[in-house]
Write a structure and sequence with these properties.
The complex is a heterodimer of chains A (257) and B (400).
Chain A (H helix, E strand, L loop, with lengths): L1 E12 L2 E12 L3 E5 L6 H9 L6 E6 L2 E2 L8 H4 L1 E3 L12 H8 L8 H4 L4 H20 L15 H14 L4 E5 L7 H18 L2 E5 L3 H7 L2 E6 L2 E6 L1 H6 L1 H8 L1 H5 L1
Helix pairs in contact in A: 3-6, 5-6, 7-8
Chain B lengths: L31 H10 L13 H8 L6 H24 L2 H30 L7 H17 L5 H23 L4 H17 L5 H4 L5 E2 L9 H23 L2 H11 L1 H6 L4 H27 L1 E2 L6 H14 L4 H17 L4 H17 L4 H5 L1 H7 L13 E2 L2 E2 L3
Antiparallel strand pairs in B: 1-2, 3-4
Classes of the chains: A alpha/beta (257), B mainly alpha (400).
Chain lengths: 257, 400
């Protein structure tokens, strides 16, 4: 069964056709890569699926539920978690506070009772706190729980964002360049982490990624976007050798050479 | 869509990008916590490494031993003495001089309420309000009208003042959903000014230029009693503010301030919580306005001019945006300075301007940043200056 099914997705910004007739599907328990040169429309694609932009054509359904037209904040309770290229954390707050922010949808107490610190609020807050610490320990971030996010090195900030998204109990992760700013070794370690997270937490993953060795290593299937159009799709090894993909990344002469 | 060969989960492959590295994709799921910690997060030189120089400080801070039992007694004792001092102070203000001091105290406490109100909007939610005097004014006139014209009880008026403040702020909130930055600042500026010259001059509601009478409620007619009323309300609102910050509401508002996109993807309803921030700010302003009206016993439209709005913003910015203690100090200072020193408004404006310039150019965290070591000490830390910029101490966040 498909987790995410996107058909004929298109969006136009003024004169620019940012996405044109994109079809993509992610199945249960897959790690799917979305690659493409800068400006190909990868993040725009994420934003359309997440409801940040309203696409002009096409549909996107998550386990059979249509996503287009649904406000962004509804997705987290459906099990969709998203990370950002430039880290979607509140960087002036400590790690632990961000873990609590990420669990917003899990706090069931009423808005009004939040202002009075009623016993049920305090009880739920303790539970959220416990969950947060558990996930931080799971990710090996326990020692940094009280550190302000901005004070952490970039790689750890990235990892903290993953931890925060995991705290919201996702079944489907959309990662936007999770290894940007990491060294090749760090990216490799991240790949190991991702494979393990999938196994431990039963995750399905769609990730935008530039780091080709990582894509080849962990992805089950790869889509390549160029100028808003789907250029190629297939297994990671096929994509790596695909002449049009090589041309898009390196220029025509390399492809023909 | 075509069938994808060889891509079912069973064919999941081990990570093999680097031939020299161990492939771990297919090992047994043993102790993931330990392995992740070892492989990815912490062990230097491997995985997502910890080579940055900031690390020792972070972990060192984490393992810092807390204060001894005596240390805690000293901290708690000092806080208790300060709180008891404020509570007991009105009992010692006697005679004519005492009456003046009781008035000052009430005004200081009311300004703290104003400060909390604007802090919710500007400090927590990151919006701007240069027309905050309008919400205060709406609360003040509502309260005065209900007590002196409808002859209803003060308590009814007090609650309705909060409601009317909330409605007027929520109206502005709807505009703020579409505008930001300079444009929002201009709209709020216009909102406040227009309210002062039109809304607050409707004779049948506000008494026009002569003003509306706002008698004090029975049981709180003396300055001392009224100071205690203000103290009780301020304490209650401080509690509400504290609980809000420590709940999903406060966190949602912070998250929206920093990054709306990621806040929404964490399930936070941006529209709802932005409006909520305006509403909460409006409730605080309205309640403060009600106390303000009955403290003065006469409300006039001219009290709610732009200078008043500027003072409100100034005291919060100089006190330290987002910091409860900073707002408390800033508000008290700007409320009492002109009264205590009987200074003409020029000096107040001058001091305010210098403090604002210093805050904007040198010390973004305002007074709260300057006293951060002290606040940390009260929270169980040491007095030493923090190695890096303090962004949050003991539940108080200060935007850099």
């Amino acid at each position: 069964m498909s987790v995410l099914d996107v058909t004929n997705l298109g969006i136009r910004f003024g004169g620019l056709q940012a996405l044109d007739d994109v079809n993509l599907s992610v199945r249960e328990w897959e790690i799917v890569g979305l690659i493409g040169p800068n400006g190909a429309g990868k993040t725009t694609f994420f934003n359309c699926v997440m409801g940040v932009y309203k696409p002009s054509t096409g549909s996107a359904s998550y386990r059979g539920t249509e996503l287009i037209g649904l406000p962004t904040h509804h997705r987290v309770t459906m099990g969709i978690g998203r990370t950002f290229q430039n880290i979607g954390l509140v960087k002036v707050l400590p790690v632990i506070e961000n873990m609590l922010i990420a669990q917003h949808a899990k706090a069931n107490y009423g808005v009004l009772s939040s202002f009075f610190g009623t016993p049920n609020v305090l009880e739920e807050e303790r539970t959220l706190h416990r969950n947060a610490l558990e996930i931080l320990d799971f990710m090996g971030l326990g020692p940094y729980r009280n550190a302000v996010v901005a004070s952490l090195p970039y790689g750890l900030q990235k990892l903290t964002e993953i931890a925060a998204v995991l705290a919201s109990d996702p079944e489907f992760l959309m990662l936007d360049e999770p290894t940007s700013g990491m060294s090749p070794e760090e990216a490799h370690a991240f790949g190991e982490l991702l494979v393990r997270l999938r196994r431990e937490l039963n995750l399905t993953v769609l990730m935008i990624e530039h780091h080709v060795p990582l894509v080849v290593a962990v992805c089950d299937y790869v889509y390549c976007l160029n100028f808003g159009k789907l250029l190629a799709e297939g297994g990671p090894d096929d994509i790596r050798r695909h002449p049009e993909v090589v041309a898009a990344y390196l220029g025509e002469e390399h492809a023909s050479a | 869509m075509t069938e994808r060969a060889g891509r079912r989960p069973s064919s999941r492959k081990a990570v093999s990008a680097d031939p020299g590295a161990p492939a771990t994709g297919d090992v047994d799921p043993v102790d993931v916590v330990a392995e992740l910690a070892g492989d990815v997060a912490i062990e230097p030189g491997e995985g997502i490494s910890s080579e940055s120089e900031g690390f020792d400080q972070i972990s060192a801070e984490d393992t810092e031993p807390g204060p001894s039992a005596a240390g805690w007694i000293a901290r708690r004792g000092l806080i208790a003495i300060m709180v008891l001092g404020v509570i007991a102070a009105p009992l010692f203000y006697r005679g004519d001089a005492g009456q003046t001091k009781l008035t000052w105290m009430a005004i200081g406490l009311i300004y703290i309420i104003f400060g909390l109100s604007i802090n919710v909007l500007v400090g927590y939610a990151g919006q701007i309000s240069l027309g905050h005097q309008a919400f205060v004014g709406v609360g003040a006139f509502t309260s005065a009208y209900i007590v002196s014209v409808s002859h209803a009880s003060f308590w009814v008026a007090f609650v309705l003042a909060g409601v009317s403040g909330a409605i007027s702020a929520a109206l502005l909130g709807f505009i703020a959903l579409r505008l930001r930055g300079l444009f929002l600042a201009l709209i709020t500026l216009a909102y406040g000014t227009v309210a002062q010259f039109t809304l607050f001059n409707i004779s049948s509601l506000t008494g026009g230029g002569a003003g509306a009478r706002a008698p004090r409620p029975a049981g709180f007619t003396s300055n001392r009693q009224f100071a205690y009323l203000c103290m009780a309300v301020t304490a209650a609102l401080l509690y509400v503010d504290w609980r809000m910050v420590r709940s999903k509401v406060g966190r949602a508002i912070f998250a929206i301030r920093e990054n709306e996109l990621s806040a929404a993807s964490f399930g936070i309803n941006i529209t709802g919580y932005k409006l909520l921030a305006f509403t909460v700010s409006g409730v605080f302003a309205g309640l403060g306005g009600s106390l303000f009206a009955h403290q003065q016993q006469l409300v006039q439209a001219s009290s709610f001019d732009f200078t008043f709005a500027l003072t409100l913003v100034l005291m919060v910015v100089v006190g330290g945006l987002g910091s409860r203690v900073g707002v408390l100090i800033g508000s008290t200072f700007f409320a009492l300075f002109p009264l205590v020193f009987n200074a003409i408004s020029l000096y107040t404006a001058l001091i305010g301007a210098i403090a604002l310039l210093l805050t904007l150019t040198r010390f973004h965290g305002g007074i709260a940043e300057q006293i951060a070591p002290i606040l940390r000490w009260f929270g169980g830390g040491t007095l030493r200056k923090h190695p890096r910029r303090v962004v949050r101490t003991g539940g108080e966040s200060v935007s850099p």
